[in-house]
From TrEMBL:
Top-level taxon of the source organism: Bacteria
Assigned keywords, A-Z: Acyltransferase, Transferase
Entry keyword annotation includes Phosphoprotein: no
UniProt-recorded name of the protein: GNAT family N-acetyltransferase
Species of provenance: Halomonas urumqiensis
Keyword Acyltransferase appears in the UniProt entry: yes
Amino acid sequence: MEERIRIVRMTGDSPHVATLAAWTHDAWGHLHPGRDVETAIELLRGECGPAGVPSVFAALAGNTPVGTASLVSDDMSDRLDLTPWLASVFVLPAWRGRGIASRLVQRVEEEARTQGHGHFYLYTPDQQPLYRRLGWRDLEERVYRGEAVTIMCREFAIPNTPAG
Ligand SMILES: CC(C)(COP(=O)(O)OP(=O)(O)OC[C@H]1O[C@@H](n2cnc3c(N)ncnc32)[C@H](O)[C@@H]1OP(=O)(O)O)[C@@H](O)C(=O)NCCC(=O)NCCS
């Protein structure tokens, strides 16, 4: 049951980081030719910040990681004008369809929003309906690294800082 799932911030020394990096390297390593899994693990450790950008989260069932999502400053090499990004959303196949990715996305959204980011981006080839349900809107269709993708945007109302 999904109520047993905890969404937890990863620190660089967590034993789970290597597991999460192996999943995302398997899923998206082809987008980074020449990057081996050891390099992917070290890069992910470097993204395990204490708050804000960058941050890495895991969904844990007991103490077993079953999903992950990250908040990073850039995720599309030729769109450095857009920042920050929701990246590396992944749930193990046996745990899909229970709302775990939705909870991970909402946790990363909360992190971006509370750090004062009014706009927040992602790109996806095929998961647009999931993100639309969570309040994201389509921003741009494009081909990126040989794949047709949609850049999507989530906007937050950031409260004005009281004067004085
Ligand atoms: C895409 C992915 C992250 C979704 O993970 P997930 O945990 O299954 O996502 P959710 O459960 O939050 O939502 C998925 C579906 O379950 C449904 N769902 C959500 N909560 C549910 C619940 N409590 N009970 C039953 N179904 C639920 C959602 O409505 C959604 O329906 P859909 O199949 O029509 O889209 C996962 O399939 C994955 O890791 N895929 C490979 C990597 C990938 O494509 N990542 C996204 C890159 S942009």
